Amino acid sequence: xxxxxxxxxxxTGADVGTRNRGIDGVVSRPRKDSMTAQPHITVEDLWIExxxxxxxxxxxxxxxxxTAPAPTIFEHLPYRLTDLRANRDNSWYQPLxxxxxxGLRVDIRxxxxxxxxxxxxxxxxxxxxAEALVAWIRNQPWSDGSVGMIGISYSGFNALQLGxxxxxxxxxxxxxxxxxxxxxxxxxxxxxxxxxxxxxWAQMCTGVVTLPPDPRFVGExxxxxxxEQRLDAFExxxxxxxxxxxxxxxxxxxxxRYGYDSMTCAVYAVSGWNDRYRDGVLSLMEHYDxxxxxxxxxxxxxxxxxxGIGPRLEFVSEAIRWFDHWLRGDDNGIMDEPSFHVWVEESxxxxxxxxxxDGKWVGLKSWPADxxxxxxxxxxxxxxxxxSVLLDTDCAISSDSLIGLDGGVSAPFKSAATDLPRDQRADxxxxxxxxxxxxxxxxxxxxxxTVGLTVASNTSVATLSARLCDVFPDGxxxxxxxxxxxxxxxxxxxQPTLLPRDRDMKVDIVFQGIGYTVPAGHRLRLSLSANYxxxxxxxxxxxxxxxxxxxxxxxxxxxxxxxxxxxxxxxxTSTPAHETVSGSWAANAxxxxxxxxILHDLGSGRLVRRSTSKIATQPFMSDxxxxxxxxxxxxxxTDGDPLSVASITTVEETLQRRLWSTSVSTRTQIACDSENxxxxxxxxxxRDQTVVRDMAWHEVIPRDHG
Length: 706
Known about the structure:
Helix content is 17%, strand content 37%. It is of the alpha+beta class. It has 3 domains: 3-192 and 245-364, Rossmann fold, CATH 3.40.50.1820; 372-560, Jelly Rolls (Sandwich), CATH 2.60.120.260; 588-702. It has a 12-stranded mixed β-sheet, with helices on both faces. Strands 16, 17, 18, 21, 24, 27 and 28 form a 7-stranded antiparallel β-sheet that branches. The chain has a 7-stranded antiparallel β-sheet with strand order 30-31-32-33-34-35-36. The longest helix is centred in the N-terminal third of the chain and has 15 residues, at 124-138.
């Protein structure tokens, strides 16, 4: 195998940074050597030749003063290491290298500067490459044979996926913001229905994988030809994702939950209650029997030290402790601590942009936890009641098509001022709601809420949404969590079945996990609706659902048992977050170009929800390259017409340095009729102002029970 050093970069002094110095708002655990001078770090770019002959672009961080072989920690993802993620990578791998590890970041095949072609997320070829990377690392003279992986989001997924393949030498993984069941938890679907965040991710993915390699790294003579090959081979990922509308082999591939039996590496699983992917941590902690730790804080889709929602944690030091134990054999006590640390948020008035959430850390020995019991309610025409009662009348579930408008987005990642849910009173008023009596004692909710009901539908395809809210004495309504279901999947996601019209059906809905304290003097509110737009694409016909008289509407709320689990104080201490760590997505977001507006034509009933965002890379580690990413997503609906729904997403990217400029512009519209999804997409790639490729797609994809 060939390794070629393309461009050694040596950073010393302030560039290296201080591993354990917490910035304002970050909780830091001091290490024993935290007061010593920081070592010299060398950063070099290199090529890694795979057994297939393709070369992957990589960047390596190491300490040249350490002559003995060292453990290696690597990450394998499509988010361009020389520009898009250069600063973020440096904020991780500099302190890892300072702690005596070799850090290695690799662009996935066909992305960034790597050769080959990108065909899909988590492809078999991608995972084969990752296995080959582990073998390559172990064969290097600077490697001691012990390998770890870190990753968030995309690389959080594939780190865990590689763990299920159990390659020799892979001993420990840190996965953040991941799903271990791609159909149930990933951004493409929600409750089995098409999810609007999945449509946005399709465009983000398109933008990332269609940018050119950088001529500074691949050569002035090669970059354009390779870019043209990349563009000519590109197929919009949304076409494949919309083509698989039930849980089939496409989705189980790469779903780590189904490979835990073969996995042996130690896993540290991380997420936040404001992240779409928090249920992946709950699932791993329940289903993986190997060595593991879990951490769920208040964060959005971000590392704990980078999050916009505080309190933040200086997690890099925690990661070093983890790898010190599993890659070096240090008996540092990390596995003697509680296996699962979770944040339980205190009640606060709703805000679309929390910067800090009060609450407490709780340490659990395992999950599911003995310290968590259930508080059960039943619903009737007069509200929620403790104990078991039956519905005393048929009860219509609201079919209002605008319910969900105040729900924010399911996967906040940029800490924008409009990402989190607003006051829920408007959505509650449109829904069918059941209130509890005023609580006489506080409830610490921890886990996944469940609702069971018996319902009849007048249509053969329908969706159902359930929300639990914290209702304040003044009427303010704060969203606690939501659950959704395409009712054709009530008996399983593998083989959906049409609903028997006007027949009773038993349905269970599982909510997204949450840690939240509802104080005494407040009420719980369960709200049901046949829609939750724009999160969930509506069914083809307006559905009229009815809760059946004489059946039981049950609400089960997981709660911490009083006095069973004391809060954790030491490392996990509440500290407000004020600034964003340099190098994160949020640090590079332009607040003046991140906004959400709602336009509602009261005459026609037409409504448009428009979100815009801009991210620009900082030049510190990008060698002069400047990358700008702008995205606009419009969700359209006409009140009462489920076939009027459309999602239009545009992305504009520029990658440039002095005397060189490229751009990729895409526009995708997804609409529907009663039988099909209709996708129209354009892509225009330019070098300077010259069009390199002008491409278009029109696809009609049959709806499959949705």
